[in-house]
Amino acid sequence: MKTKINEKIFIELYKAGKNDYEIAELFKVGERTIQRYAQRLRAKGKIKPRETLQTTSKLGLKDINTLDIAKRIKEVKTDWIIPVGTSKKLIKNPFKIYLYTADQHVPVYNIPANRAIHKLMEDIKFDGFRIVGDYMDMSPISHWNEHKRRTLETQRLKEDYAIGNVLLDEYDKRLPKNCDKAYFWGNHEDWYNQLIEKLPVLEGMLSPTIELYFEKRGYKVYETLNHIERIGRLSVTHGIYANVHAVKKHIDVF
Question: pLDDT at position 29, please?
């Protein structure tokens, strides 16, 4: 793995309580690089999981960091308590305002991008909210990793769902109570359907729809891959075509 990261300095920063975003900024690399690097060191026993470290992040803005997640997982192991949305009234507007997000790829979501979404939700009261696929990365059950045991070392889908629930809580508590919310399954969530094709005995277990408590949260869920939702003249889908001319292909076909 080619990287600019100094292992000794990384370990010191990690043990001091610096989160992935802070460490990435110091080394001038991406957060995903830091997350993968930390995972390799944990597998070698050189560092411990963050929840075992008695430290706190010094980042000025409140982030959903690993320590927060570990605490929440212990508090609500099986019956997740869904936060209540804001009760502020929507400003009367002739147009409906919707917020669309996609491709968070939990658990390796982008902290600065999600912080921006949180601030946007605090500034604007949206009539609708859509998560348009690949919210979960689902790498522990990816067919691409089927025979890569070292790649999947320390990864657990149940833990990924716990992180996904924490992030959804942060969205839901900032949205109006009567917000029109929906969740699209993307090609990554569809790996669950592929798993069920191989192991039908698992049907109804570990589904994103169930594990992320979308019924309790008040979301409509579109589990069919490439579902197209139409709101007025707007057509929304996760993405049907993937090639170098994907945008033009979608426009031509639609």
Answer: 83
185 and 212 in contact (C-beta within 8 Å)?
Answer: no
Tell me the DSSP string of 55-68: -----SS----HHH
Candidates 61, 16, 169, 23; CA nearest to 106 is 169
Helix (H) or strand (E) holding 184: strand 180-184
- The C-alpha atoms of residue 148 and residue 154 are separated, in whole angstroms, by 12
Mean pLDDT across the stretch 28-53? Answer: 84
> How buried is residue 142: exposed, middle or buried, by Cβ count under 10 Å (0-12/13-18/19+)?
middle
Q: CA torsion angle for 204, 205, 206, 211 (degrees, to 10)? A: 70
- The overall average pLDDT reported for the chain is 82
Give the separation between CA 76 and CA 53, rounded to whole angstroms: 20
Give the SS3 label for residue 230: strand
Distance of CA 34 to the CA centre of its chain: 17
Give the distance from CA 68 to its chain's centroid: 15
Assess whether pLDDT exceeds 80 at residue 86.
no
Q: Quick one: CA dihedral 230, 119, 65, 165, positive or negative?
A: negative
HSE-CB at 103 with a 13 A cutoff on CA atoms is 4
pLDDT of residue 233: 84
- Tell which residue, 46, 54, 61, 45, has the closest CA to residue 170: 61
